Each structure stands twice: as structure tokens, then as C-alpha cells.
Amino acid sequence: MTTLEMGSVPRLRRGVRLSYDRTRETHVLLFPEGVLVPNPTAAAVLSLCDGVEDVARIASALRERYAGVREEEILDVLSRLGDRRIVEWT
User: Fold this and answer.
1) Cα gap 79→87, rounded to integer Å
2) Keyword DNA repair, does the record have it (predicted)?
3) From CA 79, how far away is CA 76, in angstroms rounded?
4) Please, which residues bridge with residue 36 across strands?
């Protein structure tokens, strides 16, 4: 298992796609094993997992949109998504 830190660079694994379901007005995460409806926090984090920006930059971008963003929470979300094989690190 990879140790996550602020310099880690997350990206969606191959075959994983985050999209917006207009009918349900929510994000859905499509991956080979199934479908996941992420909560708004996870969707915001996932939308920034491009394989270029590190966790520190993702946190900075989220702080521009939301109050109270904590790096530990972002690392926790990414760790759980990594355990589910939804994200990986470059």
C-alpha cells in the first residue's frame, strides 16, 4: 500500500469515470466493478484527481470553493477510494 501525503498525485484508475447524472442531479462514479454515488465532498475531490495536481494543490483548489477544507479529510477520502481501487497515485 502507498503511503499518502500532501505531495502524492492522485488520478482515477484506468476504466474509472466520474460523470454527472442530470436525472438524479448527482455525480456517479462508473468503474468496471460497478457504480458508486459519491457524496458531494468525495465528488469534489475526485473531480480534481487528474494525475497532475498533488494533494496540496487539490486542497488549495477546494479551499477556494469551500470553507473548512482540511488536508487530513482529503487524504482520508483518497485513502478509502484507493482501497476500493478507484484512485491510484502517480
Assistant:
1) 9
2) no
3) 5
4) 29
